[in-house]
Amino acid sequence: MKLGKRLQTLHDVVTQDYQHIWDCCCDHGQLGAQFLHSSQAHIHFVDVVPALIAKVKQDLTCFFPEAETRYSLYTLDVAKLPLTQYLGRQLVIIAGVGGDLTATLMTSLCNDLRDEVDFLLCPVHHHYSLRQTLQSLPLKVVHESLVEENRRIYEVLYLTSGKTGTAITPLGEAIWQQGALSKRYLEKTLDHYARVAKGKPEAQAILSAYQHLTL
Ligand SMILES: C[S@@+](CC[C@H](N)C(=O)[O-])C[C@H]1O[C@@H](n2cnc3c(N)ncnc32)[C@H](O)[C@@H]1O
């Protein structure tokens, strides 16, 4: 199975071993299926739409007939993930949904964290407000980067509730050290917030924060 560049990047950024990997908002379940293939972890596929989970179940039965005991399927709101029911290292992946929804889900999940949990996020839009929410949660940055697919640039945020890592910043740090890609991302971001600020003056503060970045 060949993943697109965004999902392949999310897969490849994970170099640690986990006992549990949660492919949240999984839709087609491609990322979780890749981890089922490449890791020893138990893979949890979660989506709120029953028909999507039924399709993932059908695909896994067909393509991973030997791995029946290595995955679980849930038709569930990710805000209600039963993380505390599992022991061992856990990675929660939330990709391909809006930054606002990602913020809501992360706030809910971090409300009841008992053990150390890692998170891999790849939101669509609203990175600034998402980062503001993430700053208010007990999380640190393990790694952050940009990935481009179909002329769209995404932020990849690998976070931990553990002790090692750096502080989350509102604009990001390492994402501005990827040369030409960072430059293009900054241009796109400035264009976006300049447009938003025309109809929503409160976006001016966000625009000026990005304008102060020097690459
Ligand atoms: C565009 S797909 C993302 C698929 C995949 N994660 C990716 O990055 O390509 C978004 C999925 O999120 C699911 N979703 C939206 N809100 C959700 C929630 N609160 N809990 C679980 N799934 C949700 C939708 O049903 C949809 O299948």
From TrEMBL:
Organism: Pseudoalteromonas piscicida
PANTHER family: TRNA (ADENINE(22)-N(1))-METHYLTRANSFERASE
Recorded superkingdom: Bacteria
A Pfam family per the record: Methyltransf_18
Protein name: SAM-dependent methyltransferase
Methyltransferase among keywords: yes
GO biological process: methylation
Keywords from the named record: Methyltransferase, Transferase
Molecular function as annotated in GO: methyltransferase activity
Alphabetized InterPro entries for the sequence: SAM-dependent_MTases_sf, UCP028234
